[in-house]
Amino acid sequence: MGAELNRQFVVFEGGEGSGKSTAAAAVAERLRASGRDVVLTREPGGTRAGELVRGLLHENLAPWAEAFAFLVARAQIVAEVIQPALERGAVVICDRYEASFFAYQGFARGLDLGSLQGANAVATGGLSPALTVWLDVDPAVGLTRKHGEDEAIRTGLEAVDFHRRVRAGYGAQMASATAGSWVRIDATLSPGEVADATYQAVISFLG
Fold first, then answer.
1. CA distance 183 to 117
2. CA 153 → CA 49, 60, 128, 156, distances in Å?
3. SS3 180
4. CATH code reported for the domain at 2-206
5. What per-residue confidence (pLDDT) applies to 2?
6. Largest CA-CA distance found in the chain, in angstroms, rounded
7. What are 114-129's pLDDT values in tens digits?
8. Of 24, 118, 141, 149, which alpha carbon lies 20 to 30 A from 125's?
9. How far apart are CA 207 and CA 179, in angstroms?
């Protein structure tokens, strides 16, 4: 399923305070202004069930309970939002997806990556993004930006060492990814510069 459907599936990834949500929304708006059919969604969330799971993820769950909660939300958003949109030819921009799962639950929480990858493949039906846009920022900088935010789920409230492992997890995934399927954006740039850089990366990929 994934290889046939994912040509217009773009995911924005990044640690806390990287500005990925703002950048994803800006890119979606510019693509719509150019006449494209664009679906912008987020993970965990994007569906009624996913938003309920997002509420659950504010709790102090055991690592595997947390992982399975993310999988519930991801399975639902793929079935209800992402797959139907791709099937009709829309561009789908998702704020977080499987790379976050592997970075946070695998590299940072220490859960077995092979087990996470297998479970994720079942939940998504093998649907992976064609392009992952990684907004990279030093965790100390990102956490300062997020200070005082009360919407963050539990993973966003961990100590800086946890987020350093998350960042390393993103880097490892990019290093092993198929050439051209990931792009790294310096998230210390101004919001306008980040929006421009991410838009150029996405439009160059989509053509």
1. 21
2. 16, 10, 23, 6
3. coil
4. 3.40.50.300
5. 45
6. 45
7. 999 999 999 999 999 9
8. 24
9. 17
